[in-house]
Amino acid sequence: MTVTVRFAPSPTGRIHIGNARTALFNWLFAMNNKGRFIQRFDDTDIARSKQEFSDAILYDLHWLGIFPDATEYQSRRFEIYDAAVERLKAAGVVYACYETPEELDLRRKVRRTRGLPPVYGREALALSPEQIAEYQADGRRPHWRFLLPNFSSDPLQPERTEVHWNDLVRGEETVDLASLSDPVLVREDGTYLYTLPSVVDDIEMGVSHVIRGDDHVTNTGVQIALFQALAAEPPVFGHHNLLTTASGEGLSKRTGALSIESLRESGIEPMAVASLAVLVGTSENVAAVPTMGELAERFDAPATSKSAAKFDPDELFVLNRTLLHHLPFAEAQDRLIVLGVSDDKAEPFWLAVRGNLDRLADAVSWWRILREGPQEKPEFSDGDRDFLGQAFDLLPEEPWSGTIWKDWTGKVREATGRKGKALFMPLRLALTGLPSGPELADLLPLMGREGTMARRP
Ligand code: GLU
User: Fold this and answer.
1) Domain map of the chain by residue range?
2) pTM for the structure as a whole
3) pLDDT recorded at residue 255
4) Where is the protein found, in the record's own terms (predicted)?
């Protein structure tokens, strides 16, 4: 059997790092099992779903390094769901209900005050044909519920009915179907809620493993019953913990907080996002993993903790610096060209500056310093100015060897008696205009003798 997974967001906003966790868990699981990854847009809520969000989600996935084998839209598949509902109606497990939201609300309150669980009491099953005719005459249209198989002969007498599955992440799981309301599958206006289309698609698309957030654990009990009602074998389920901010807040597509788009715009590398999104809240240490292949090797669904994974967005910057520090020139080259860093010095330049970057784009300011000199003229005391005069007089003629920085500063130390910070800081300021930065031993050969002399104060 080919492993087939899917990532199934509703396109109602941009995806955030928590959604990326779900997408990546599926992608890495597919990678490790030579499986297929389907991108499925759960866009049955026509009013809130937008094509622009679907497009943007695909863009974000590509940026992260996820390339789906197929892309599907639920909004284009209503006929398939209609056929499934007809089958369920024929089997007598879908029934029409006429309650308004206000009526349901009132009933829930009454049940609560009587100490009963606030589940739907299946009152619609007891409607007489006359009452139904009356509702219809009033212009009420039915919504349709799935009759959960939680009774032996009388649906009005539900009994504890356990659904079990062996969760890929959480191990043995149990949901009692008697603790749940019969889910609404179809709204009054004929549109679908998430529950049924998801199951129908998982069957039709041959989904073997459903990996999703643990906010869906209860749904899984219901959906396993639906798979069975449609005479299909349920897939394997895995529910991973959700990401929350350090203060314990959940993430929402609506607020745009920690969206993949905003992380990209702030210069975070995709593998920094992927490393944190996948490894936080697991028994693996969070580390900057440079490639998806290596991340796949570390990925192990059962090693995910069951409690919410708190994470610190600042950690992304730490991971980002580590990734850039080790990023080979071949991988940076094209992006550097776009930034205007592209002559025969680009490679030694990259190797010299990469260890000092917060963001790849920051390489530009070092490129500018190298080509144009300090961006702000440094101020020097008289003593430092004299020192620098002597130092520049001692700069060796070209050709320079690989040890030019050591050779030059050695001579300067001998001639001036200065050492340590008193020696190096004025030189660093004169050469770069900044008190810290890449190794001067690496920068000096890139400036050349002429470039260096041009920096003499
Ligand atoms: N559209 C659902 C969600 O975003 C999908 C859940 C699932 O993977 O089945 O939560």
Assistant:
1) 1-71+193-326, 82-185, 329-372, 382-453
2) 0.93
3) 65
4) Cytoplasm
Ligand 1 centroid – CA 287 distance (Å): 28
Contact 181, 121 (CB under 8 A): no
Q: Which residues contact 414 (CB under 8 A, 6 or more apart)?
A: none
Element (H, E) at 96: strand 94-97
Beta bridge partners of 163: 175
CA atoms in the 13 A half-sphere facing the CB of 5: 26
> Which tokens go with 2?
């080919």
> What was the pLDDT predicted at 256?
65
Domains 82-185 and 382-453 in one fold = no
- Residue for token digits 């069951």? 306
Beta bridge partners of 146: 94
pLDDT in tens, 402-447: 999 999 999 999 999 999 999 999 999 999 999 999 999 999 999 9
- Report, as ranges of residue numbers, the positions in the chain whose pLDDT lies below 70: 254-256
What is the residue whose two structure tokens read 């069957």?
203
9 CB near ligand 1 (under 6 Å): yes
Q: End-to-end distance of the chain based on CA atoms, in angstroms?
A: 72
CB distance 311 to 245 below 8 Å: yes
Query: Per the CATH hierarchy, to which homologous superfamily does domain 1-71+193-326 belong?
Result: HUPs (3.40.50.620)
Q: Is the CB of 216 under 6 A from ligand 1?
A: yes
Check whether domain 82-185 has CATH 3.90.800.10, yes or no = yes
Joined together, the tokens standing for residue 275 give 């490393």
List pLDDT tens digits, range 187-212: 999 999 999 999 999 999 999 999 99
Cis amide prior to 399 (ω within 30 degrees): yes
In the CATH scheme, what is the code of domain 382-453?
A: 1.10.10.350
Our mutation pick for probing the ligand 1 site, out of 42, 74, 252, counting the most ligand atoms within 8 A of Cβ, is: 42
Contact 14, 22 (CB under 8 A): no
Residue whose CA is at the smallest distance from ligand 1 atom 6: 8
Nearest CA to ligand 1 atom 10: 9
